[in-house]
Design goal:
The protein has 2 helices and 5 strands, in the order ααβββββ. It has 146 residues and is α+β, with helices and mostly antiparallel strands. It has one domain (14-138). It is rod-shaped and about 105 Å long.
């Protein structure tokens, strides 16, 4: 009879119940925290990709303007000739944004039709292309054949 009275008078939680609830709440908290962390990382990567794509688009529009005016990439002081093969010339240009490099590849073997390929890189990770665009442009007749 005394045991029944003791059980009837229990009004608090035992230490085991408190520890179990603390563990369950901790698991839920850290799960939500890891989901928020992954979401922030995905947002950062998406923002980097959008910025690089914008730079590539802006560069493509600039090259289109140059092609309409008949100006050659080699004559523009913003571009440095990096490599030159029979088919491709690769130019490098530093972006206005710090740490971003734009590479422009030009294939003018079928001039006035010029194939242009733009790659946007991060200086810290030059092997990873952040954005890429390609176009075939009809280049205006240049003032001099360079």
């Amino acid at each position: 009879m005394k045991i029944k009275q003791l059980k009837a008078n229990e009004k608090g939680l035992t230490l085991v119940e408190l520890l179990a609830s603390f563990v369950i709440l901790s698991i839920i908290f850290f799960s939500i925290l890891s989901i928020l962390n992954l979401s922030a990382k995905a947002n950062r990567q998406s923002e980097d990709m959008m910025d690089a794509t914008y730079l590539a688009q802006e560069e493509m529009e600039w090259l289109y303007t140059m092609s309409r005016d008949g100006k050659r990439i080699a004559k523009d002081e913003n571009y440095r000739l990096e490599t030159s093969t029979k088919a491709w010339k690769t130019y490098t240009k530093n972006s206005d944004l710090e740490g971003i490099v734009i590479k422009v590849k030009e294939n003018d073997t079928n001039f006035p039709m010029v194939r242009v390929l733009i790659h946007v890189y991060d200086e810290k990770e030059p092997e990873i292309v952040k954005a890429q665009m390609e176009s075939l442009m009809k280049w205006g007749q240049p003032n001099d054949a360079s």
